[in-house]
Every structure is written in C-alpha cells, then in structure tokens.
Amino acid sequence: MSVAKITEITSNSPKSFEDAVDTGIERASKTLKNITSAWVADQSVSVENGKVSSYNVRLKVTFVLE
Predict the structure, then answer these.
(1) Inter-residue contact 43 to 33 (CB < 8 Å)
(2) What backbone torsions phi and psi does residue 45 show, to the nearest 5 degrees?
C-alpha cells in the first residue's frame, strides 16, 4: 500500500507557461523524492510596460512517501 502527499509550489518563467511548469518540477525534484504527478492549479502572467514579463504557475505536486 502506498501513501502519497500533495504539496503546492509556485514557479515562473520569462518564456512560457510550459517552461514555468518544467522549472517548477525540476526544482521540486531536487528535494522531493518519488514525484508521480502534478497539475496546474492556477496560472497568471506578470505585465510590465504593456507586455508579458513572466508566466506564473501554481502547481500541486504529488509524491509517494517512502
């Protein structure tokens, strides 16, 4: 029987939402073991001078406890 935990993280990227997700998962995997899934709970953009300056995501990351 497995027991999993969900944690929430935020991440951003100047490139895209996809890159923000990739960056968040890559960083989370440095401290969380056994990540099995993640979903985007929220997404937004930051705007400077009328242009998108960064893409922001709030992720819910699931990992299995040892």
Answers:
(1) no
(2) -125, 150
